[in-house]
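seq:
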Amino acid sequence: MTASQRSVELTLLAATAAADKKAENILAIDVSEQLAITDVFLICSATSDRQVRAIVDAVEEALDAVDVDPVRREGERSGRWVLLDYLDFVVHVQHVEERRFYSLERLWQDCPVIPLPEIGIEESPDPASAGTPGA
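struct:
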């Protein structure tokens, strides 16, 4: 089983909103084969707590415009790693330090990456550079 078309479309919408706020190393991973609870993880980085919050706000705004709201939101208070759970997909907005430390893309490296050509992402970023500004 692969991620549903709707999950991929909404992930693209969220990725575009994140890119508009200068999110770095945006990566969409199809975790549907490994997890029964969601189809896609969208992971992106920010260089400051303020940027993390701005990206989260932009993603929520873009998805709210198509009547899609998160069922759960975590980490908003600290602004270092915010998780938005939309059931079919989960958005992880991480400060570059948290991204480097937790390295979610390494944990899920056996899962296929979903290309995001609309925002200029054809393949997975190098995991070693994840969260590195300018990488």
